[in-house]
Specification:
The structure is a homodimer.
Chain A lengths: L2 E9 L4 E10 L7 E10 L2 H8 L8 E3 L4 E5 L16 E2 L3 E9 L3 H4 L5 E5 L7 E5 L3 E3 L6 H4 L4 H15 L4 E5 L4 H13 L2 E6 L2 H9 L4 E4 L5 H12 L3 E4 L2 E3 L1 H13 L15 E5 L4 E7 L7 E5 L2 H7 L2 H13 L11 E3 L1 H4 L2 H7 L8 E3 L5
Parallel strand pairs in A: 11-12, 11-14, 12-13, 14-16, 15-17, 16-18, 19-20
Antiparallel strand pairs in A: 1-2, 1-6, 2-5, 3-7, 3-9, 3-20, 4-5, 7-8, 8-10
Chain lengths: ~375, ~375
């Protein structure tokens, strides 16, 4: 192969989204590089903003002859994407396939013919050229579809547990906890004997987690939610939370409960609250509304963003390799992902299909297979 | 001396504040301890919550015969002070005086007769028994009144600059910046060549800071405040802020400006914002209303509480000694505090006087002199 069909996204300064399939030349892999023939690249929620930005997808149109999707950007929203205007950009954070070419490094050569998963930012393509260190080499028998979601959810879930240990906590709270990621987190924690306080929004989500062995589940739609949350935090001693929601008062409520637990035996002034380090990381933004902090948690607390890529950058390379191996070993159990729909390139840029996957329904999970015609 | 007159505070479960002057026995100092005869103990804003809690001071009454102040606790507020109910507690965070007795350790003995400042939590007393390490030994000629405010403001200001360096920042933003603390911070930073972006609330406060050489002053009451803030953060490269206010959107606005500066040259998606570590520490609560976070600053940001005592606990002991020495050396310049009123014990618990100092007016500064009759 000399070239590769690849999906690109472009937002013009004039306010148009153009997503299109283009032929791009394939480089000869350098010593440490491999070329992966992509067979399955998931469309994760985190891919959608790069793909579409603030486009009005209800008005999207596909030009089949040019294999190009066009949609107008919502009025007034262009400033939100000023850094990307008029640039043709690759998309697709992760994917899996077969190594079909490799640089001269023996470790790269050893990967020829193997099924690997990659994290690259350009996986919506027939072929990807990546450094060999960016690959998770999967076991024989693992298919590309099974391996497709090896990075985003598995390493985020593992990263939460790593963060917990690195920062001296012993249990954690997770919101929007019935997500695919949340289920992985519970499987990891059940195995490792770590307690997770799962916050969900309805009974159906609670049931999903119960089935996989989750012990602490708090339904935020229940009247006595705050009481249950306090109990669960008290029993687990959780002083760390990961929040996928962002908006509203939940982050503050979690810290308030942690403080009440930390201060329950306090004597004297306790003006500055418990000395426990109470931390919430916001890693998602399901609710774009402002985060409201009531600050009823003394002086020893923190809130911050948490981003997988930046977290991985803090780990020692050998630890990253260990985590990769763990994902390969348990890709069909702990880290299994169930896909509901396979898309060709054309389907991926067809307005009706976009409408389906952009809805981000619980349980619905799409991937692109560039070899599907 | 065998006993010491000392002010204590008590909030009863029945909802009464009782502040009273009591005789307490003085211990014999252990080897590493000294006894300080207090001559000046400031009433800082941070002393007032321990002293009064949520008492309705408009209804306070002084019983002169018993030397006891009584005031009712505001209805429904008792739960905010549940940890201290029915406990007689000492008050007064800092103060200064003369070492009048010392344990057998040579270093303790060497302090006899010297003017020292202490941080103890029980300085509203004739005498305090403290470990010698809790003292800043002042130079000959420094008076107790000059030395009285050696800890809370000076070490907080120094701690901010220490934090800046320890966490890899090179400039900082400060709110409520015309405070005594804010002025010290500017003096320190002018000396050390560190840029401070000062946020104040009116022109009068701006003028105070201009006089002491502050270069970056942003008036939040000005129409173009956000533009000025952005400019100042751009010019200084500040990625750290200390906030004394807490409530409202200012914390969020500071982070937003830092992100805009960090992302101004960004190309491509920039979905997760600048990789600069943007941090705001909330160290005060001038505004009790909720903190509102708009989260328009990518994924690399943090907000948290900052408390002097917990920060000092992270420093190496030899660094603490260095900072103490710095305070002693510059107590009449960088760390000078101007007191406007000297109070006897009786005056300190007299309702009209309480009303004055509890107003926390800019420029007004009170201290207790136990020897005043």
């Amino acid at each position: 192969m000399q070239s590769s069909k690849q999906l690109f996204t472009l937002i013009t300064a004039a306010g148009q989204l153009e997503m299109s399939l283009k032929d791009t030349p394939l480089p000869t892999p350098k010593a440490h590089e491999v070329i992966v023939k992509i067979e399955a690249a998931p469309i994760n929620p985190s891919d959608m903003w790069p793909m579409f930005g603030p486009a009005n997808l209800a008005e999207a149109k596909l030009d089949k002859a040019k294999m190009q999707l066009n949609a107008p950007i919502y009025q007034g929203m262009l400033s939100r994407v000023s850094s990307r205007l008029d640039q043709v950009l690759p998309i697709g954070n992760e994917g899996a396939g077969t190594v079909v070419a490799a640089g001269e490094h023996p470790a790269a050569q050893a990967m020829l013919g193997k099924t690997v998963a990659i994290l690259s930012g350009a996986t919506y393509a027939e072929y990807c050229c990546v450094p060999m260190q960016a690959c998770i080499v999967h076991h024989e028998g693992t298919t590309a579809k099974q391996a497709a979601s090896s990075f985003v959810n598995p390493l985020t879930a593992l990263g939460m547990v790593e963060t917990m240990r690195m920062e001296g906590h012993t249990a954690l709270v997770h919101t929007a906890a019935a997500s695919a990621l949340g289920q992985m987190l519970n499987k990891i924690c059940v195995k490792q004997g770590v307690n997770v306080v799962n916050i969900v929004r309805n009974q159906q989500q609670a049931d999903i987690l119960k089935k996989i062995g989750a012990k602490y589940i708090c339904d935020s739609s229940a009247a006595d939610f705050k009481k249950h949350l306090l109990q669960a935090i008290d029993e687990t001693g959780a002083t760390l939370a990961f929040d996928a929601i962002g908006g509203g008062e939940l982050v503050s409520d979690i810290l308030t409960a942690m403080e009440r637990v930390g201060s329950k035996d306090a004597k004297g002034f306790n003006t500055y609250g418990s000395a426990d380090n109470k931390q919430v990381y916001i890693y998602g933004g399901l609710d774009f509304s402002p985060t409201i902090l009531n600050r009823a948690y003394g002086m020893t607390w923190g809130i911050g963003g948490w981003l997988l890529m930046r977290f991985l950058g803090k780990l020692k390379p050998e630890r990253v390799v260990e985590l990769h191996k763990l994902v390969a070993d348990e890709i069909n159990t702990t880290f299994a992902t169930t896909f509901t729909q396979e898309l060709s390139f054309e389907e991926a840029i067809t307005p009706a299909t976009i409408n389906d996957y952009n809805a981000k329904k619980t349980g619905a999970k799409y991937y692109i297979n560039p070899t599907k015609v």
